[in-house]
Design brief:
heterodimer; A: about 350 residues; mainly alpha; two-stranded antiparallel sheet; 16 helices; about 70% helix; about 0% strand; B: about 425 residues; alpha/beta; 13 helices; about 15% strand; globular
C-alpha cells in the first residue's frame, strides 16, 4: 500500500477501505467531475476513443480476474464478448426486451458460456488451456454463423440504440456517459471481487494451485467462478459494443482482439485492477497515435510503401508488449506504484 | 533537480502522446477532402494500397487540370483544392469508427468503407451523420436500410448469379448442373449464403448441393473441402474470396486434378475482389478456367478509356513506381464518385455552407450515369434507396494464363429485404 507518510489505519474497516484519505476521495471526486464534463470540451472523435477505451476497460477487467488473478489464460475473450453481444442484440432486436434487461441477460449468457468452456480448466492448464479457449472462440463464431434465423448469420443483425427510462442513448455524448458509468461500476466491482474470499482463492490458485488445494480451496468451484465472472465482464463489454455500432456481426469480434486484450493486461500489469485500466488506455492510445503517424510517415518518406508505414500499428503494439515483458513484466501498474512511492515522503527525499 | 527533470520528461511525453487527439483547426484555404478509412494492414492490404494510389493520383490530376476525366466536359471549381485524407484501420471496426470521427473533425464531407467488418460498423453511423461513402466491399447487407454506402461493382450475390447464368448457358449435358458454395469463412464469404441466391440457382435449373468454407487466407490447403466437392460431383463451385484465398485454393484444386480442363471437371467462380487480373498474373496457366464476375478491365487493356486514363495518370505521377494491381482502377473510380458528389453538391450550395448531408443528398443521390471510362461495367447511377451503381456484371475467365472477357450479364438484384 503506497500510503503517504503519517497516515495510520486505526480499524479494520479503515484498513480495508479502497480510499483511505481525504485526498483520495478528492481525487476521485475530481475524476468524476472530469468524466462528467468531458463531453463539454471534447470532440466527438475523442468521445468515441474514450467510449472505446471504456468498453475495452470493462473487457480487460474480466480478463484480469480470469488471467491476472486466477492464472487461467484465456485467448477466447472476444468470443465471450460475442456471446454477450448477440444475446443483447437478439433480446432487444427480436424479442423487444428493454436494454436494462438485456444487458444483465447478456452478461449472464456470456458467464454461462464461460462456465461451459471453463470446464476443461479443471483438467488442463497453461498452453493447453490457451488452446481450449482459442477453440471456444471459433466454436462461438461457428454457432453465430449457423444460427442464421436467430443471429442473421453473416448478414448480421440491426440492433436498436439502448433506452433506459425513456432516455435513448443515441448520441456519442449520451453513450459516453453510459459506457463510463458502466466502466466505473465494473472497476469498483472488480476491485472488490479480488478482495473477497473468492478473490483471495483466485490468487492462491494462480500462485500455486496444488498448495491452494491442499489448503482447502475448491479448485473446481473457484476456477469456474473465475471463468464465470471474467466472461460476465466480457458479455457486458460485448453488449455495449454492439449497441454502440447498432449492428451485430461476428466480424466485430475478431480472434486477434483476444490477443490484444491479453497484451493490454501485460502492458498494464496482470493481477491489478489499475493495471487493466492502464493497459486498455495505453494500448488504445498507442493505436490512435500510430493511426495518425502512419499517413505522416507515408507522406514524409514516399519511397516507403503506404502499407509499410501503416503496419506501424502491429509493429508498435508488438514491440511495446515485448519491451514490457522484458523490462517491466509487472506492467504500468507497478511503475505507477513506484512513482507513488517516490513521492511518498515528498518534499523530503528518501532512499530505499 | 532530478525530480524536476523527471517531471519535465514525463510532461513532454504526455503532451506528445496527447497532441494527435487535439482536433486540427479548420484550414483557411478552400480545401475539400476525399478518402476515408483504408485497410492497409491485413488481408486487404495489397488491394487497399492500390486503391490509395488511385485516390492520390486522381486528386493530383483534378488539382492540376481542374478536369474530372479526359472524356468529361464538366470542370471542378478552380478555386478549390482536393486533398486525400486516409488512415489505416487494420481491418478493425472500432478503429474505423474513431478514424471516421477524426476525419469528420478535420472537415471531410465524404467517406469510404474498406472492408465488410468496417462497412458493417460504419453503416448506421454514416447514415446518422449524413455521410455518403463508396465501399470497396459489396455485401448484401448494404442493401438493407439505412443506406448511404454506395457500390461501384455489383453485390456479391448478383455477381455469382451472373456466373451461374454464364455457366448454365454453356451447359451441354441433359442432367441438372450441380452447384455448391466454396467460400471464405468470414462475413464477406458467408454473405452469399442467403436464401435468395439458392432460390435463384434452383430456379435456373441447378441442383444445390451445400456449402464449404475456407479461411479468408488459408493456412493449409483446403483439401477436405475440395474432396467434398469432388465426392458430391459438383460442377460449379461459387464463393467469395480474395486472391490470397483463391490462389492457394486453385493450386490445391490442380493438385487434386480438379478444374475445367483436368480429370475432374469443375469450374470455380468468385465475384470481385477475387480479380482475374491479379489471379492470372500470379498463377499463369495454372489458373486456367478460374472465373471472376464484377471485376474491372485489366490494367493492360488500353483500348478502354478508363484504363488508358489510369495508365496516363501513372505515367505522369508515378514514374518508375507503377501500380499494376487492378484495384488502382477502383481507387480512381472511388475518387471520381466522391469528387462528383462534392461537385454536384457545390452546384446547389456554396463551398462554405456544405455539410456531409448536403453532399449526400445533393451529391451522391444526384449522381446519374457517371461515366467511369468503362472501368465499371456500366455508368454509375445512384439515388435514395439505390446504392448499387452498376446494372450489369462483367464476367472474366483465365484462359491460357490471360484474362478473357466472357461478356456482361444483367444485374439480378436478388437480395430483397
Amino acid at each position: 500500500m503506497g500510503l503517504r507518510s503519517g497516515t495510520f489505519q486505526e480499524s479494520y474497516a479503515q484498513d480495508m477501505a479502497i480510499f483511505h484519505t481525504r485526498l483520495d476521495w478528492g481525487i476521485l471526486f475530481a475524476f468524476f467531475i472530469f468524466l462528467f464534463t468531458c463531453p463539454l470540451f471534447f470532440s466527438d472523435r475523442i468521445l468515441t476513443i474514450m467510449t472505446m477505451i471504456g468498453i475495452a476497460i470493462i473487457s480487460v477487467h474480466g480478463l484480469n480476474i480470469l488471467t491476472g488473478y486466477c492464472g487461467q489464460i484465456s485467448i477466447g475473450h472476444a468470443g465471450f464478448m460475442a456471446v454477450g453481444a448477440y444475446t443483447s442484440a437478439i433480446l432487444t432486436a427480436k424479442l423487444g426486451w428493454p436494454f436494462w434487461a438485456a444487458l444483465p441477460s447478456a452478461a449472464l449468457a456470456a458467464g454461462m458460456a464461460g462456465l461451459i468452456f471453463g470446464l476443461p480448466s479443471l483438467k488442463i492448464k497453461g498452453f493447453y488451456l490457451i488452446m481450449a479457449t482459442i477453440a471456444a472462440h471459433f466454436i462461438i463464431v461457428w454457432f453465430i454463423f449457423q444460427l442464421y434465423g436467430l443471429t442473421g448469420g453473416a448478414d448480421g443483425l440491426a440492433v436498436p440504440r439502448p433506452e433506459i427510462a425513456g432516455i435513448v442513448f443515441k448520441s456519442k455524448r449520451s453513450y459516453f456517459y453510459l459506457v463510463m458509468a458502466t466502466a466505473c461500476l465494473a472497476t469498483f466491482t472488480a476491485q472488490n471481487i479480488v478482495r473477497t474470499r473468492a478473490g483471495r482463492a483466485f490468487v492462491a490458485i494462480r500462485d500455486n494451485d496444488l498448495a491452494a488445494e491442499v489448503m482447502g480451496i475448491n479448485l473446481w468451484s473457484y476456477k469456474l467462478q473465475a471463468f464465470f465472472i471474467g466472461c460476465v465482464y466480457a458479455g457486458v463489454a460485448g453488449s455495449l459494443l454492439v449497441h454502440y455500432y447498432a449492428f451485430a456481426s461476428a466480424d466485430l469480434f475478431p480472434f486477434w482482439d483476444s490477443v490484444w486484450y491479453l497484451g493490454m493486461l501485460i502492458v498494464g500489469g496482470m493481477g491489478s485492477t489499475a493495471g487493466a485500466i492502464f493497459g486498455a488506455v495505453s494500448l488504445k492510445l498507442l493505436d490512435e497515435l500510430v493511426t495518425i503517424v502512419g499517413p505522416m510517415l507515408a507522406a514524409i518518406f514516399p519511397a516507403v510503401a503506404a502499407q509499410a508505414a501503416a503496419s506501424l500499428g502491429l509493429i508498435a503494439r508488438g514491440l511495446v508488449i515485448i519491451l514490457f515483458l522484458i523490462f517491466e513484466p509487472r506492467g504500468l501498474a507497478h511503475r505507477w506504484e513506484m512513482i507513488k512511492a517516490y513521492f511518498r515522503l515528498w518534499p523530503f527525499s528518501h532512499q530505499e | 533537480m532530478a525530480r524536476f527533470r523527471f517531471a519535465l520528461v514525463a510532461s513532454v511525453i504526455c503532451i506528445l502522446a496527447a497532441s494527435p487527439l487535439v482536433p486540427a483547426s479548420a484550414e483557411a484555404a478552400k480545401t475539400l477532402y476525399v478518402g476515408g478509412t483504408m485497410a492497409l494492414t491485413g488481408a486487404y492490404a495489397e488491394d487497399t494500397a492500390a486503391v490509395l494510389a488511385g485516390y492520390e493520383d486522381y486528386v493530383k490530376y483534378v488539382n492540376e487540370t481542374k478536369m474530372l476525366a479526359p472524356w468529361r466536359k464538366e470542370k471542378f471549381p478552380a478555386d478549390i483544392t482536393l486533398e486525400v485524407l486516409w488512415r489505416d484501420d487494420e481491418l478493425k471496426p472500432p478503429k474505423a469508427l474513431t478514424i471516421f470521427e477524426e476525419l469528420k473533425a478535420k472537415g471531410i464531407l465524404v467517406f469510404r468503407c474498406s472492408g465488410s467488418p468496417q462497412a458493417l460498423a460504419l453503416k448506421d453511423r454514416l447514415f446518422e451523420d449524413g455521410f455518403g461513402a463508396p465501399s470497396m466491399a459489396t455485401g448484401p447487407y448494404l442493401l438493407t436500410p439505412p443506406q448511404s454506402v454506395f457500390t461501384y461493382y455489383p453485390i456479391y450475390t448478383d455477381s455469382l448469379a451472373a456466373i451461374a447464368d454464364w455457366f448454365k448457358e454453356n451447359w451441354k449435358e441433359k442432367r441438372k448442373p450441380r452447384v455448391a458454395y466454396l467460400t471464405a469463412d468470414n462475413a464477406m464469404g458467408r454473405s452469399i449464403v442467403v436464401p435468395e441466391l439458392e432460390a435463384y440457382l434452383k430456379k435456373k435449373g441447378y441442383e444445390f448441393i451445400g456449402n464449404q468454407f475456407v479461411p479468408l487466407v488459408p493456412t493449409s490447403p483446403p483439401t477436405t473441402q475440395l474432396l467434398w466437392l469432388k465426392k458430391n460431383k459438383v460442377d460449379l463451385a461459387l464463393g467469395v474470396m480474395i486472391n490470397p484465398g483463391s490462389q492457394p485454393t486453385v493450386k490445391e484444386m490442380v493438385r487434386l486434378g480438379i478444374g475445367p480442363h483436368l480429370e475432374y471437371k469443375m469450374v470455380f467462380g468468385v465475384p470481385a475482389p477475387g480479380h482475374t487480373a491479379v489471379f492470372a498474373q500470379a498463377m499463369g496457366k495454372l489458373g486456367d478456367g478460374y472465373v471472376c464476375a464484377g471485376s474491372f478491365p485489366p490494367m493492360d487493356d488500353l483500348s478502354t478509356p478508363g484504363v488508358k486514363f489510369c495508365n496516363d495518370l501513372q505515367d505522369k505521377y508515378r514514374t518508375g513506381k507503377r501500380v499494376t494491381h487492378i484495384m488502382y482502377e477502383a481507387g480512381v473510380i472511388e475518387a471520381m464518385i466522391q469528387t462528383e458528389a462534392l461537385r454536384l453538391a457545390m452546384k446547389k450550395l456554396p463551398f462554405e455552407k456544405l455539410t456531409p448531408r448536403d453532399v449526400l443528398e445533393q451529391g451522391f443521390y444526384k449522381i446519374k450515369e457517371l461515366n467511369t471510362g468503362d472501368m465499371s461495367s456500366t455508368p454509375l447511377t445512384y439515388g435514395k434507396g439505390d446504392i448499387e451503381g452498376a446494372d450489369t456484371v462483367r464476367v472474366d475467365q483465365v484462359q491460357d494464363g490471360k484474362v478473357v472477357k466472357l461478356g456482361t450479364w444483367p444485374c439480378r438484384h436478388l437480395y430483397k429485404r
